[in-house]
Amino acid sequence: MTMARYLRLILRIALGAVFAYAAWLKLKEPWQLFAMAIDGYKLLPHWAVILVARTLPTVELLLGLLLIAGPWLRYSSALLTLILAVFFGLMVRSYALGMHNDCGCFGGGDPISPHTLLRDGALLAGALTLTALAWLAPCARRSNTTSSSSPAPDRDSAPAQ
């Protein structure tokens, strides 16, 4: 197993476990608590806050389980990266504006701070790496099989018929 495959496996399991754990923490609490954290960002209308609070934890759980299990890694890692990029962008915006709201990352009680920004930035970096490895692995495999196969016979050197 190559180093890239080990790294892909470790990132896949670690990020999947983090997402599944974060989802579990949100699902075991009343959805209204997560809705309050979402509303703290002051971006969405009330109906969208409710929709996101009721659906996002389930999406996070399914995405975490998909990452751990491994199927559709290219697409699940890309979705993970997109979600984390949006989360991280919103957290940076909120911190820069001096808003003192809960990040909502792992349920309630986690205010946005340099620590949460560092943690989520590291998660985003891991997700970007996983996505790159997932999308580049098939290309590397294809180029290895192409270069290791025997070359096609030269048409000019074939016997004339």
The 3D shape can be described as: globular
Please state roughly what percent of the residues sit in beta strands, choosing from under 5%, 5-15%, 15-25%, 25-35%, 35-45% or over 45%: under 5%
Main sheet makeup: none
> What is the helix/strand order?
HHHHH
Report the span from N to C terminus: 48 Å
Outline the low-pLDDT stretches: 150-161
Tally the helices: what do you get? Answer: 5
How would you summarize what this structure contains?
It contains five helices and no strands. It is mainly alpha-helical and 161 residues long.
Give a structural overview:
The structure is a single chain. With 161 residues, the protein is mostly helical. It has one domain (20-141). Helices cover 73% and strands 0% of the residues. The protein has helices spanning 3-27, 31-39, 46-69, 73-96, 114-148. α1 crosses α3. The longest helix has 35 residues, at 114-148. The chain is globular, with a radius of gyration of 22 Å. The model is unreliable at 150-161 (pLDDT under 50).
